Amino acid sequence: MNDAFEDLKKLTHLYLENNRLRTIEHCHTRNLFELKTAILSHNNLTIKNNEESSKALFKNSTLIEKLDLDDNQISGFCFYNKEAIPGVDNATEIILSNNKLTSLSNVHLHDTSYKKIKLYVSNNNITSLFYPNESETSDKFNNNHVEVFADNNPLNCDCNLHTMIQHRNKANRTIEFRNWTIHMDNLKCNEPSLLKNTPIEIFESKTYKCLLNESNINYAKCPDNCSCWRRPSDNSSTIIDCSSKNLTSGPNSIHLLFGHQIELNLSNNLLSSMPLSSQSGYGNVTILDLSYNNITHLTHGGLPAKLKILYMHNNKLIKIENNVLGYMRNSLKIKELTLHENSFECECDLEDLSDDLQNKNWSQSEKEKITCGPSNRQVYKLSKQELCPPNYGLIITSCIVLAFVAIDICIVIIIFYRYEEIIKIWLYEKQWLLFWVTEEELDRDKYYDAFISYSQKDHDFVVNNLVKNLEKGQPPFKLCVHERDWLAGEQIPTQIIQSIENSKRTIVVLSSNFLESDWANIEFRTAHRRALEDRRTRVIVIKYGELPPIETFDRELQSYLSMYTYLEWKDPSVWSRLRFVMPHRTRSRRPQCTRTITIDNPDEMTRETHL
């Protein structure tokens, strides 16, 4: 393409859009003297960023009015056009939207004859619209008036953005800086993330703050879970924002990152108390925002020496200590304090606050918003008598009532301790106040936690599973097992009765073998009748294995199973349920009716009718 336009010196319009052009240089356009329009959009052009005027693209095209390079791969562009043409309106459009520009410093418009240039750089990767210093900006654009359209770029709203905001024209929605104008339409922050999608035009020069990061913090560290900012308009403060982080306490220490003052924002957290001013760095805090927390006390120890503004609204303050009010009343530094939307009660504790609101120079709006009680009465309008009215009649009546109550309590206590056992028996018979008649009291003479009733054919299951886990588990239980704890030579019926009477529970291992055992059924009936006599649930039935139809059971056992729940051995939660229905408190005592012996050979004492 080197010679394609060599003889087209009269060419005025050049359309090469929607092709696959990759490069174009000065040698291709040097003879296009009368060119007015060049449309090279929608290609793959990567124009070299060459600042030599002798090699600038379209350098000799002094009449050019529009240069469209939209949607290419351009990362840098140079434009030289020094020769003015008499009688020609020196204005042109340069369209570089949808390219790969990362900064306006990639665009060079040196020594152009045009007085007005419209530069379109929308939808690029431009993060900043300013050069590092003003002299470079002046160099690049000389005396041209450059109008820039740069919307939809990933702008970094850092501290350098303050320069742009300072030259904002609100009426025109533009930035007017030296000889160029930037339109703010759809100019939004992309970074930092806290400002993402924030329109540039809402920022004010005096209040604009920029995020500090590791690159501009050389000797200190921003507290964890917080962001640190500075305000370029005064450069006097470090702004530490820890708001809305679900914090339960403030940072352990804070440091000056910039300036000589700290503005600390801890609002909308879960703080229940104020951070102490003695903590490292807190002495330099001038503005402290503790609003929207759960703070219940405003303490003198939480007031930094340099404090000027304190926001305490929307907390759970009940009262303000006198020493705090005295300190704030006499302080020449504190200019503002907010206390509205707290939990003040209209009581004597608010007398000092009411006086302070009436005498001190509080803002009228804050005065009116500080209320107390469920009816939200304005504190500053309440008199001492309204907050703390004397009520001698109530005091006298209360004293008399308390005296009679105390006498009655003493009489009841004396009677109870004098006739404790009789009272407990009577209460139990009436089924009244059973929480006083504890299981420990009723079963104080029972030595065993449980007697296990089972068929001798289920011996292995009972000994290796049930007994082992209950006696060695947590908590351990003391069990009565006939093979181990019955006395040799004693009659079986007597042993059954004594074992049941000496046990707080009877555990029945209900199996098909159990149903075939006469002695096992006698043990169940004895335990069941004893429980009915005691009017307590003492029998624990564990269903073990497959059972025949319930209609074939002993009638008394049928009746019991139809009225009470029982445990299933195959239930995964059987152990937790079994331990729950066992006695919850046990004490080791000597048996009242039997004594325990150890048998070397349990098989010699097998009950015949259990076989």
From TrEMBL:
<keyword id="KW-0472">Membrane</keyword>
<dbReference type="GO" id="GO:0038023">
    <property type="term" value="F:signaling receptor activity"/>
</dbReference>
<dbReference type="InterPro" id="IPR001611">
    <property type="entry name" value="Leu-rich_rpt"/>
</dbReference>
<keyword id="KW-1133">Transmembrane helix</keyword>
<feature type="transmembrane region" description="Helical">
    <location>
        <begin position="392"/>
        <end position="417"/>
    </location>
</feature>
<dbReference type="InterPro" id="IPR035897">
    <property type="entry name" value="Toll_tir_struct_dom_sf"/>
</dbReference>
<dbReference type="InterPro" id="IPR032675">
    <property type="entry name" value="LRR_dom_sf"/>
</dbReference>
<protein>
    <recommendedName>
        <fullName>TIR domain-containing protein</fullName>
    </recommendedName>
</protein>
<feature type="domain" description="TIR">
    <location>
        <begin position="446"/>
        <end position="582"/>
    </location>
</feature>
<keyword id="KW-0732">Signal</keyword>
<dbReference type="GO" id="GO:0007165">
    <property type="term" value="P:signal transduction"/>
</dbReference>
<dbReference type="Pfam" id="PF01582">
    <property type="entry name" value="TIR"/>
</dbReference>
<keyword id="KW-0812">Transmembrane</keyword>
<comment type="similarity">
    <text>Belongs to the Toll-like receptor family.</text>
</comment>
<dbReference type="InterPro" id="IPR000157">
    <property type="entry name" value="TIR_dom"/>
</dbReference>
<dbReference type="GO" id="GO:0005886">
    <property type="term" value="C:plasma membrane"/>
</dbReference>
